[in-house]
Amino acid sequence: xxxxxxxPRHLVRRRGQEARLRCSPMKGHSHVYWxxxxxxxxxxxxxxxxxxxxxxxxxxxxERFSAEFxxxxxxxxxxxxVVRGDSAAYFCASSPQDGATNEKxxxxxxxxxxxx
Amino acid sequence: GQQxxxxxxxxxxxxxxxxxxxxxxxxxxxxxxxxKQDPGEGPVLLIALYKAGELTSNGRLTAQFGITRKDSFLNxxxxxxxxxxxxxxxxxQYNNNDMRFGAGTRxxxxx
Lengths: 116, 111
Description:
The complex is a heterodimer of chains A (116) and B (111).
Chain A: E1 5-7, E2 10-13, E3 19-24, E4 31-37, E5 43-50, E6 53-56, E7 65-68, E8 75-79, E9 88-95, E10 106-107, E11 111-115
Parallel strand pairs in A: 2-11
Antiparallel strand pairs in A: 1-3, 3-8, 4-5, 4-9, 5-6, 7-8, 9-10, 9-11
Chain B: E1 5-7, E2 10-14, E3 19-24, E4 31-37, E5 44-49, E6 55-58, E7 61-65, E8 71-76, E9 85-93, E10 98-101, E11 105-110
Parallel strand pairs in B: 2-11
Antiparallel strand pairs in B: 1-3, 3-8, 4-5, 4-9, 6-7, 7-8, 9-10, 9-11
């Protein structure tokens, strides 16, 4: 899982600011997933993207949250006008989608967002 | 999305004891997976199961894919302190490329 790079590792924002979380998938992986983890809780699915396409965003709040995975560059999870309830660890995972190992997700180390 | 029911939520055991945890769902999955998350890190895949009834081992870890395809269990034998962490089950469905996670089992091992 060391191949999935997330940055920053820690992000502190004041209420009302914007948070941008970046994820570079493993080399050769074209599919990215974002999960949110609250303290003492499990992983909650947010969004699944392929290059330039959002495949499933059923887990993402309709307001303030957006995600993209451009043709070039990392996937970005953007949270506008953050509130204290957005404080959580956000994990990105990638998979190769080569037909043989679609189900194996490789996770990054996460971004811990703290909203003051 | 469909979440999985994972139990127990937490376990406190002595070093050397065996551990068992399980996951159930109302939906059928094509693949069951077990991940471990160390503190401050992302989950790492431990075992993947692809066929109903399949029993797979990875060192001291053994996992089984339930016959109904709606459940799975993970056993850890002779636990050691580095087994501490959160263990997540995950179910995967091919038709919609859908992956769902359980809430996790938090394992504490006392030396």
